[in-house]
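Morning!

This is the sequence you dropped in the shared folder:
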Amino acid sequence: MTDILQMLRRGAWILVLTTLLGLAGGQAYTETSDPVYRATTKLYLAVQTGETNAAGLSQRSAAELSKVQSYVPIVTSELVLEQVIRDEGLGMTAGALGTHVAAVADRGSNVVNIAVTSTDAAQAAHLTTAIAEQFSKTVTELEQPLEDGSSPVKITALVNAAVPTTPIEPRPAYNLALGGIIGLVLGLAIVLARGMLDTRIRSASEIEHLDLPLLGGLGYNAEHEKTPLVVTGDARSPLAEAFRDLRTNIAYSSSGNETPVIMMTSAMPSEGKTTSVTNLAISTAESDARVLLIDADLRRPRIADVLGIEGAAGLSDILVGRAEPDDVIQRWGTGKLDVLPAGRIPPNPSELLGSESMRQLLAVFADAYDIVLIDAPPTLPVTDAAVLSGMVTGVVFAAAAKQTRRPSLTSAVERLTSIDAKVLGVVVTKIRSRNRRDFSYGGYGYGYGYGSYEPRTAALSLSVPETGGRRARTS
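The structure's back. Tokens below.
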């Protein structure tokens, strides 16, 4: 029911539009339709039996009721209508005229009602009278006369056909109501079909329906495309606070004795994972935690550009033995955030990321930092995220609102969980909504607190002299 209500809310403009179109259609039909008039007459049928005793009168009453029912079809029969057509000089067939003639007997009585419709009021009345007269003649001819030569059936007109003054069609109110109802029903069908066929995730609350943990919801602002570092550029904004709440939720989700090594990925490209993990790293460093941000997207690296650092050498160079970690890790900002760019784009990213060297490198980083955050490639297009997922303590998926499709996200999560990866949850990005419910953070609530990481006592095993923008580390 909640899903249906959300579909109706999103498709409210469709419902309004189709209803208005239906009303307009009903009004147009009313204005373009020719008026139709109906003339009626009532005939009373009496059966003469010649009986005067009680039994005869009872027989006469039963015969009258039986005759009335048997005579009704004669009104619209060819025997009657063809004669009327000839007498009136009508240029139509008996079948065509029959569509405008109706006859019905009152229940339990001897009265037959005849009605004729026409776009000409006078013609409707004239044809009604003509059909009634021809009906009377035909019945008289069909019945066997009594001994005295008279007809056993006497037909009397109770109500003569009068020229109608008010058309029965079109009916403005009825047509408007019918048009509005048809438009509304059509709109409902379109909205429900659209909602069922549109599998895009539209809000953070929809993640709950996929049986996936919801870690956070991040709003969207066009200005952030130019200045993606929201946590430092607009530190007091709701979006910056959302990143801090995301930091807290991930800390709760990955609580344990081992150093969190968190990989952020997405189902498909351009879903906001790089911006999210970069701001997450900055907000985590604000809590006095030692943070290492690794750009493991060796196909389309972006962290160096986002942070404005040198990205010519980095992770790929370490993995192939061209550089040592302390040569390429760079300190960013005034906090405890270190960044390892992707480096040169290799021809075999999956092999490098899945190598034993990568596993050992992450183990070293886990001893040296309080938390390690990894920006990984999308899960579905390439296998890089899958091979990395077995080396990390948790995986976070980024899903863009009104972009990521539910089957894609579900498939990506299943791909990693099938190889025993620990999926911590999903953060929904690019949310364009004023609904507070769309910014619920995994149940902790907006403004729960900034949270903090307890500084670890593990010794730093990497050491280089203090040069350039890098920090000196001692064991």
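Headline: Residues 435-475 have pLDDT under 50 and may be disordered.

More detail when I'm at my desk.
O.
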